[in-house]
Amino acid sequence: MDMLKTFEEKITYAVEKIKILKEEKNNLDKRIEELEDMLRMKEQEVDKLMVEKAAIKTQIEDLFNELDSIELEKRN
Fold first, then answer.
1. pTM of the model
2. What DSSP string runs through 19-42?
3. With pLDDT > 90 as the criterion, what percentage of the chain qualifies?
4. Cα gap 48→15, rounded to integer Å
């Protein structure tokens, strides 16, 4: 009888442990989703900044070209 009670206690403990682990897994899955969303947002932000950088670079190059043409006109 004592063995049966010990076995029942072990089963009860295992069931409780499984519940806790499932809850932890669910919490971790939610956290993973949150982090993946944050990563996607950061990637979009980086893409946007890269586009802005390219546009600024083009503007600066255009300004330098304009300056060069002005200096050439002054020399002639």
1. 0.65
2. HHHHHHHHHHHHHHHHHHHHHHHH
3. 80
4. 50
